[in-house]
Structures are given as structure tokens and as C-alpha cells.
Amino acid sequence: MVRRLGRVFAAAVFAACSGAPRAPVPAAPAASVREQLVRSAQAYLPEEDAGRPAPSDPADFILRVYAEYGVAVPKSVPELSLAGVRVAPADLRPGDVLIFCGEKLSRIAEHAGLYAGKGAFLHFRPQYGVTQERLDAPYYRERLLTIRRVAQ
Q1: Range(s) of the domain holding residue 113
Q2: Looking at residue 104, which CATH number applies to its domain?
């Protein structure tokens, strides 16, 4: 009996010290579609020079970026202003489409950009190409008409 208890004890000690298999550490999650949209948009910046042809207008810029991920968006800024769902400024997330008016008091959608996160957005301007700006800059803050979430 003593011998049998000794074997049981030895087996228990061996099992405890052998290091039972551990659960694998989960891999870092793949970049979200939103993060990928922002990276694609940043590739249009002149300093990135990814060799992409320049967009023809702000809506074309948004269309090209979203098309890389199979998301169809309208081809004009006024149509973009109605695409997807409206988002409150407090709920702004990277990849959201920003719609601006041309004049401060106008309510006509004339310009669009893609929110990049941390208060910055990317947009196409014919004279400068794709640039990154601050959304809190007075010029843009005063002209923001709506925010649209096209990609969930």
C-alpha cells in the first residue's frame, strides 16, 4: 500500500512539474478595414509616392480608396453626402467620409475627405494633390456639413 501511494505521489509531482501544454498566445488582430482604408489613402500622399495615378477630384479619391476593398461609393460629392449612415462628430472613426461645403454659409456639398484618426483627415485638392489636414482647423471645422460611415 505504501509503495502504491508512493507511485501515485510521484506521478502527481511529475505531472505538475512537466508543464502542461499552454493555450497559444493569440496573434495580433489583423488591421481593420478602417485602418487599411487610411493606409491606402496615405499612399496617395506625395511623400509616400506609391506610384498611384492622381485622383481627378475629391470624390474620385474616396472612390479609389474604397474600391481597393471592394466597397462601392458614389462618384460625386453630393451623392457621397447621402451614402452610408450619418455619424455624429463624437462618434467619428478612421475611414469615415467627411463632407464639406465650399462657402461657410452654404449647405451645398462640394468637397470630401477621409478621416485618418487623431483629428487628421486626407483629401484631394487639384492644385496640391492629396494632402493631410487638421479637422479642427477653423477653415474645415466651419465648413463640415456631415460625416458618413460607408464601411462598417
Answers
A1: 55-152
A2: 3.90.1720.10
